[in-house]
Design brief:
The protein has 144 residues and is of the alpha+beta class. A hairpin with a 2-residue loop joins strand 3 and strand 4. The protein is globular, with a radius of gyration of 14 Å. It has a 7-stranded antiparallel β-sheet with strand order 1-7-6-5-4-3-2. It starts with a strand and ends with a helix. It contains 4 helices and 7 strands; from the N terminus they run E-H-H-E-E-E-E-E-E-H-H. Helix content is 28%, strand content 47%.
């Protein structure tokens, strides 16, 4: 399982506000090119974001569902991105003094992506999530 973390110069509440705004998802998630819709109760368990992956005109419509949520602290998502498959993505938010540490753990769980050996899968997911955390930090630290 790939694990990345980043220190963000903002409060955990501010980080959670960004994570709770499903419409910001394609701004920080690498591969998500647009959001088509978001359930009004995002990020409650069972709620979904309906996004597209890829680059226009080769876009595939898919979704991400909340499997578990501890408000202000943790999200466990099932992110779908066919034809690659689906992944479990855990996002945790921990206070670190006046800052916040955000961690992302991701593992392919279905489809062709799950058949890729971890030795190959983990470095790809690590690179992807380093960029995702960088984008998320930019949003969090610059959002009023």
């Amino acid at each position: 399982m790939s694990r990345n973390h980043r220190l963000v110069h903002a409060s955990p509440e501010h980080v959670w506000d960004v994570l709770s705004d499903g419409w910001l998802y394609p701004l920080w998630v690498v591969g998500a090119s647009r959001l088509r819709d978001a359930d009004k109760d995002w990020p409650n368990v069972g709620s979904q974001l309906y996004h597209s992956v890829g680059v226009w005109p080769l876009l595939l419509d898919d979704s991400t569902e909340v499997l578990e949520c501890t408000p202000g602290r943790r999200l466990l998502l099932r992110a779908r991105g066919w034809p690659v498959g689906a992944a479990h993505v855990e996002i945790t938010v921990e206070p670190a003094g006046e800052d916040t540490e955000i961690a992302i753990r991701e593992q392919a769980v279905a489809g062709p992506g799950a058949l890729i050996p971890r030795l190959v899968q983990d470095p790809i997911l690590k690179w992807r999530n380093v960029e995702a955390l960088r984008r998320l930090a930019y949003i969090v630290e610059r959002r009023p």
